Amino acid sequence: MIQPSLSPDLKGRWESMQAAMKKQGTNGCLLTIDVNLYYMTGRVFNGYFYLPIEGDPWFFVKRPQSFKGNNVVFLHKPEQLAELFSVNNIEMPKKLLLEADELSYNMYMRIFNALQPEEVENATLTIHKLREIKRPYEIEQLRYSALKHAETYHHIPECYKPGMTDIELQAEIELQMRKNGSYGIFHTFGMNMEIFMGSILVGDNALEPSPYDFALGGKGISAAMPIGANGTPIREGNTIMVDMAGNYTPYTTDMTRVYAVGKISNEAYHAHQVSRDIEQQIMHIAKPGTACADLYNLSLEIATKEGLGNCFMGHHQQAKFVGHGIGIQINELPILTPRSHEKLKTNMVFALEPKFVIPGVGAVGIENSFLVTPTGVEKLTHFEEDIIQL
Amino acid sequence: MIQPSLSPDLKGRWESMQAAMKKQGTNGCLLTIDVNLYYMTGRVFNGYFYLPIEGDPWFFVKRPQSFKGNNVVFLHKPEQLAELFSVNNIEMPKKLLLEADELSYNMYMRIFNALQPEEVENATLTIHKLREIKRPYEIEQLRYSALKHAETYHHIPECYKPGMTDIELQAEIELQMRKNGSYGIFHTFGMNMEIFMGSILVGDNALEPSPYDFALGGKGISAAMPIGANGTPIREGNTIMVDMAGNYTPYTTDMTRVYAVGKISNEAYHAHQVSRDIEQQIMHIAKPGTACADLYNLSLEIATKEGLGNCFMGHHQQAKFVGHGIGIQINELPILTPRSHEKLKTNMVFALEPKFVIPGVGAVGIENSFLVTPTGVEKLTHFEEDIIQL
Lengths: 390, 390
Fold this sequence. Notes:
Two copies of one chain form a homodimer.
Chain A: H1 10-24, E1 28-31, H2 34-41, E2 46-52, E3 58-63, E4 72-74, H3 81-87, E5 95-98, H4 105-115, E6 119-122, H5 123-132, H6 136-154, H7 156-159, H8 166-179, E7 198-202, E8 239-244, E9 257-260, H9 266-285, H10 292-305, E10 323-325, E11 332-335, E12 349-352, E13 355-358, E14 362-365, E15 368-372, E16 377-379, E17 388-389
Parallel strand pairs in A: 1-5, 3-4, 5-6, 9-17
Antiparallel strand pairs in A: 1-2, 2-3, 7-8, 8-9, 10-11, 10-12, 12-15, 13-14, 15-16
Helix pairs in contact in A: 9-10
């Protein structure tokens, strides 16, 4: 990729974490989950990042053995941590932050037993709250992903050939993505949450409920991953909803567009327009201080007023959110749900995806990624928003 | 895919788990991790599979709401489990199996507090031992994946164009894989273990150590996932090691082949031949009862005798295994390491991957997937094993 003009400012991240720790009354934070390591160190390694309440962090590394830098200590297993803390004169933390929503029970207990803190707080929650507010370098990464994301979508009409199925079209889009610099891998947060490079929904496959906590469903090509394209042939009168990942940096943008072959029903055109109206109205009111719940409630209110409440965010099964934070993972904080107690803050980045599923036609609506600015929101993903003819 | 001629025989799997529970003295097993749900129920859902020590299992389902079948109970959260056990006259398990290596600490504690068993045993270990011995339906899935795997590799020469980088070649192979029915997604076991559809290593990128527990490394295109192709141009005299996934069913085969443009060094040809010799000798001795450690030790012994001990399974950093079980995940039991206490058993399926990294040339060697038969081993992945000219 183009060399970013800004540095990752890891020190600033450590200081933010230390400020959060002071507020909580915790004395140290031990991280080992890949996305959190990447956030705090700019790389993924096999080992542990330890940040004391004051001073520089420590890197306890199993692999790669070529890891270099200050405060790097090699180890084989977490059971060595107490001794290595002692040898290096690192104060043992009384109140320790551990990734309780991400570490396996057994790994958590191994670390806990090694360091024997008096108390543990949830590092997952703490770091997710930090990661929610993007730093300048991160916003630059997201802007770059957004540009590349739109560039790939420009090539989608070339990917289409009459007679294709959804999965055949998806494979050609995946190639375009990779040619355009997509990393392939797609990081999600949460148990069992997975998807392969994104989702394409054609026609009534959009009605299929899925077990995952994504906005829409789709049957998928296997009961082992029931989400997205399922081999549906692309036919006139159906929509093709393209929600492929913007993973062109480690920071992923989210953008959905709808394509169609020939005419679709008036109801579907109308619903698509309502999605655009919802976005317009949210762009009008969203700014630092706006309640995330209000954004969901406004969306549902508009959908209901337009007679589309029963097909908003799904049909047989309706998702209870209209947007979500994005970053190193596709589903970060904040979440735009009716139950959210969060308010928008400057430098949050979120995806807004008011979508409708119209039986007999398919899914319609748009999704864009937004940066919260001091005075409002700025759209990052710029690309044609009408239904695009193939 | 072609309709399988065998049924998944879920009942047989439940009975095997119940037999293991009797042996352990556990009274019930609650599973919720996707690959384990898939193994026990033939599908992924959001919820819990509960198998009592006797009788039929229960399905506690959050999503999809369209889930149908016997003993299906809908719920919103694990805290409802105790009440739902009571309402349905399910005996509360005193000694419960939970997925301690896979569940997050917080989710484990929520389930534990909901059911309050007197003791907990590790379901991860128990189900991995069950999954290690493949059932007839699973072997059929693996045979099908192996066929498709080889079919894709046939097309690799068409994917290559002079002047390509490793990642450009990989993108074209990924398209071939998808056209040929690859599921895309690639399931691995273990914290932070991830890779995107497989790995291509060209030239000295094979020397780059990686943090992951895969056989070889590679720098990758991002510090957020440092594994595999890194943009190295494909040049004469370098090898191109292709280790892309055989994920054409939910069961994944593993197969590596080496391609080259023009001549490579004699040392590299020799090392490739030694890899084939190791495979031949292992095929000669491997059968039910053979110690997995012996297979590793024999491989290292041959490599060392041929003067290749220092580049066996990596160079700066050497992996301490020469093979691993395969199935729903790419890294199942058994593992062919010097520390293994396991012996081969009939219907295990494993990948054997004696590989060498030659500085200035790249990685050489082969990998194939094998089924353990009552009298020996049977190769599942049939494809040209010489270094293939592009």
